Structure formats: structure tokens, C-alpha cells
Amino acid sequence: MDNNKYHYSVEGVNYDVVIEEIEGNIARVNVNGKSFSVLMKEPVREMHRQKVAHIEPPKPAAASKPEPVEPVKKETVAAGSGNKVYAPLPGTITEIKVNVGDTIKAGDTVVVLEAMKMQNNIEADYSGKITSILVKQGDTVLEGSTLLTIE
User: Fold this and answer.
1) How far apart are CA 54 and CA 43, in angstroms?
2) Number of domains forming the structure of the chain
3) Is residue 56 part of a domain?
4) Reduced to 3 states, what is the DSSP secondary structure of residue 7?
5) Please, what is the Cα angle at 133 between 30 and 36, to 5 degrees?
6) C-alpha 43 chain-centroid distance
7) How many CB atoms lie within 10 A of CB 135?
8) How far apart are CA 16 and CA 7, in angstroms?
9) In which band, very low, low, confident or very high, does the pLDDT at 61 lie, cut at 50, 70 and 90?
């Protein structure tokens, strides 16, 4: 397997990611066949390859009843009730044009998302009141991430 090729699954969405080039704090990546320039918070100084040490396999333990596993929560911030507005592509939040409690109409721009050095206006599909905002300016989001909710 290529060292710069990765397979991810985020909230049930599969991503094939190839890191094509890194220059300073800009990475050129290919996600599911689409190329993106990604601004990293810190520049990568050097890519290190780790040597794999030989590790003895664990010895089988006595059979025991497995502990219950807590379900994984999809959102770390509680979403308000109502219809969710999702990120249509991965990028960085550059502006939030609404506040919780604001009344908006369908088609109003609620968030500006920068992707591939382009500003993308994210518009509401619904009219109503903003019940929660789950991102802040400067956040990096993935395609399908919940940005806010409208009731």
C-alpha cells in the first residue's frame, strides 16, 4: 500500500485520501477523486517513517464476558431541534452570518465555507428560526458535517 494513501470512514461516509504533496503548511490532497488544497494549522517539517518492531502476540486470556460498549456519539455539541444544514464539501468556516434565535428565509446565506481557495455561500434550505450553531469561525469541517439547525 502506498504510504500517502489512506482510507477513512467518517460518520458512515467512506473517503479514499491520497496526499499528493506537502509544501510548508499547504497539503495537496485527493479525496475520492477530487483534488483539494488543505491549509494545515502547523507546517510539516519532516515526514518520518517508523520502523516496525517485532512484538510478541498476546497470550490468550481466560474466556470472560465482554464489557458493554457505549455507542459513539456523532456530534460533540448538542444540536438544536429542527432541520440540519450540512457542509456540502470539506473546508474551513470563514464566516457565520446568523446567530441562534435569528429568523431566516430559505435561500438566505447562513455560513461561508472556504474550499480550494474559493468562498462558498452555504444557504438555508428551510425558513425558520436558528436553534443551534455547531461550528465557529476557523473550524475545519468535512463533507456532511452538521453546521447548524433551523426550526
Assistant:
1) 32
2) 2
3) no
4) strand
5) 10
6) 20
7) 19
8) 5
9) low
Backbone angles phi, psi at 44, to 5 degrees: -85, 120
Q: pLDDT of 122-133, one tens digit each?
A: 999 889 999 999
What's the rounded Cα separation, in Å, for the pair 37 and 28? 5
Lowest mean pLDDT among 22-31, 38-47, 108-117, 127-136: 38-47
CATH number where 107 lies:
2.40.50.100
Name the percent of the chain lying above pLDDT 70: 71
Q: Other C-beta atoms within 10 Å of 46: how many?
A: 4
Q: What is the pTM for the complete model shown?
A: 0.49
Is 10 within a domain? Answer: yes
Q: Quick check: is 60 in a domain? A: no
Residue 101, domain extent: 83-150
User: Does residue 42 or residue 87 have the better pLDDT?
Assistant: 87
Q: Which residue in 131, 136, 129 sits closest to 113, CA to CA?
A: 136
Residue 74 in any domain: the answer is no
The DSSP output letter for 144 is T
What's the average model confidence in pLDDT over 119-144?
Answer: 92
pLDDT tops 50 at residue 65: yes
